[in-house]
Amino acid sequence: MIQDNDVESELSDSGTDSPRIGTRLRKRRQALRMTLKQVSESSGLTEGYLSQLERGVSTGSISSLQKICAATGLEVGELFSEPDSTGPKVTRFRDSEGFSYGVKGRKLRLTPNEFDHLEMFVGVFEPGGSTGADPYSHGSSEELILVIEGQVEVTLGSQVFTLHALDSIPFSSSVPHRVKETGGNKAIVLWGMSPRSF
Fold first, then answer.
1. Domain 7-79 has what CATH class?
2. Fewest beta carbons less than 10 Å away: which of 14, 45, 71, 188?
3. Phi, psi angles (nearest 5°) of residue 56
4. b/e per residue, 16-53, with b = 16+ CB within 10 A?
5. Rounded distance, CA 99 to CA 108, Å?
6. Average pLDDT, whole number, for the chain?
7. Which residues 6+ apart lie within 8 Å of 13 measured at CB?
8. Where are the domains of the chain?
9. 84 pLDDT band (50/70/90 cuts)?
10. pLDDT by residue (tens digit) across 114-146?
11. Is 153 helix (H, G, I), strand (E, B) or coil?
């Protein structure tokens, strides 16, 4: 285990940010139901050092924050972004490009980055589109796919299911899974998972 004592790489302005960063790290760890010991084992940092970071007693270097974020599925930039305090806001799917996803698909995140327990995406697959050639897995979240429009084939491990509009299927995100449009028309699906692991 390493105690991060690299003074030169310490965050120069972390005096004001360390309590907020520590709170964010603790909130994320607790959302994942991880102990300090588990984060310590994954990151290679000591439990004592992690505890000091979470309490805002110690500041962290970019290197140590990268290790902790890798262990907890966060992006380092999320530690420094201000939470949206303007209140709820509507996400207009028609106004968003989302991001390209898989084969002939696009996806839009519906939940804000500061959410730790719930993550939701809406995805659109053009005819024949899919999440990719191979099934994938991530974390061990509880996940659910709901078909809003069209027809898709959902592969879960060695099982294959056909879902139509308003059909849904729950599973663990640790199970290799794949979604493919099979009806010959555009398909719209909703993904929900808790805790966030994508």
1. mainly alpha
2. 188
3. 75, 10
4. ebbeebbebbbebbebbebebeebbeebebeeebbebb
5. 6
6. 86
7. none
8. 7-79, 93-194
9. low
10. 788 899 999 999 999 999 999 999 888 899 999
11. strand
